[in-house]
Amino acid sequence: MLAATAGATLSTSGCLRQVRDVVVPDNIKQLSVTITTLPADADRQGVRIAGRLEDAFEAVGIDVSIDVRSEIEFRRTVLYDHEFDICVGCHPGGTDPDFLYEALYSRYADESGWQNPFGFADQDVDELLDAQRNADGDDRRKVVTEVLDAIATDQPFVPICIPEEHRVVRTDRFDDWEAGHLATRHGYLGLDSIAAAEQLNVAHTDSRPTENLNPIAADYRGRGTIIELLYDSVATQNGTNALQPWLASSWEWDGNTVSIDLRENCTFHDGEPVTAGDVAFTYQFLQDISLGNHEVPSPAPRFRAQADAIETIDVVHANRLEMTMDTNHTVGERAFLVPILPAHVWRERASDVMGPGGPTIAQGTTEGVVANNVPPIGSGPFRFERRTEGDLLVLTRFDDHFTRRLDIDLPEPTVGECRFRIHPDSTGATRVVQEGTADVTSLPLRASLVDTVSESDDVRLLESPSWTFYFLGFNTRKAPFGNFQFRRVVAQLIDKEWLCNEIFDGRARPIASPVPDEWTPAELEWDGYDPETPFLGSDGEVDVSSAKAAFEAAGFRYDDRGRLRARQ
């Protein structure tokens, strides 16, 4: 009997231990978080923000590591594969608050690109995002305010700050730099060429355009400035200014139907005519890059929200088409900013990729996504000439472009050649402009370099409006990041004011709302602190006891060693 009892005790001890672990969860591990960001040579501010957050997490009992990835790998990890916990980077933002539709609409949660990389899903927010697309005037402003209040509460991402944009330009070879924003095509058109200078030398710090010129590749594209030079769009926008006709000579609204007249006798760089059929094809392709070859549509990784605004497209004749929009006119016209693709080039790219290669995306991969598109065939003011990977991209003027016509009053390419020379960082790019071997730095300078620029009669520091913003993003598909209370506490571990002063050298402004100032409601205006998620500490240092109390109030628990538990 004693032997039997001993055996029974031994045989049941494992079960008793499992029962105890269920009732008293001593086996719960410490919460572990990975912060994905870019290396210092690509984004020094971003990796420093990640470093400060790492310190804050460690202080409040969270196990943390930083996953530093190249710009291409960062975008594939976050935008294509959604394999991240928290990410820190610069969001492309937008000049109109409708960019939030793309950023947060739940239907996009499993798609690739900047459309909802956070996997955020909230029916109430969806309804508000829909409503702002169909309201006008004061009614739209009220709905946008409701959207902003809702996301300030839920914090699917934390808007941190808007950085100043400074570039260095030379004025001894070209003038009139203020006429065009250098994040758009307008910055490179209409320049006043002094002494008939025919070559514009651009110091560029991103080598990706020398490797890939696919306009829908989210992993290779930033703002798409070079794409705007190579491809036309129906309309154009110079920075934060209003839209104006570009490839279109005009458009006219009749309710939710817009009739678009294209400029006549336009051609692609290979000599093929640009027609209303190419415009219609572009929007159909962006809505479904498989062109119906998949059981469900496969939207493009870029321009998703713009194309989604279009319900129907009818080609009336070669230079005229009609579209019906499921939005107000303001949102509908933003669809006119996508690059127009030649159907005779891109139609064959709707086929599936055979075998491994290219990014993996949830809705299926076609040749259109993975093609590097070199040489690109567009119809823009410049055409592709040659490249040296990692070193140089040369574009030449497209003399048949419509902006060269005498009867059209639009900025035109005034140089015969535009050379983008790659430099490893802002320091090197700034140096070659100051030395006179380059005319302009194309991308914003690192904040710490701005005060080192020596201005003179020939060298100027140019400041431009910015609509991009730094952010901390959560992958809400994973626990505990799907818990809005957890996200709100994390948002309170970030001293945005301190970051702007210390990491951005005072050349950024903290924000609680990611939209342009004119759309920010009074309750979300920055007044020395974040009105929704104020920092739990002072001078950049987290108040550990307050932060731990906030996590506990949110339903999380600490073990006897001060470690935040991985689950509630």
Automatic annotation (TrEMBL):
Q: Which UniProt keywords apply?
A: Signal, Transport
* GO biological process terms, semicolon-separated: peptide transport
Task: Enumerate the spans annotated as Solute-binding protein family domain.
Answer: 243-560
Q: In the record, which residues are listed under signal peptide?
A: none
Note the superkingdom of the native organism: Archaea
Q: Which residues form a coiled coil?
A: none
- GO molecular function of the protein, one example? peptide transmembrane transporter activity
| Family the UniProt entry places it in | Belongs to the bacterial solute-binding protein 5 family.
Spell out the protein name for this chain. ABC transporter substrate-binding protein
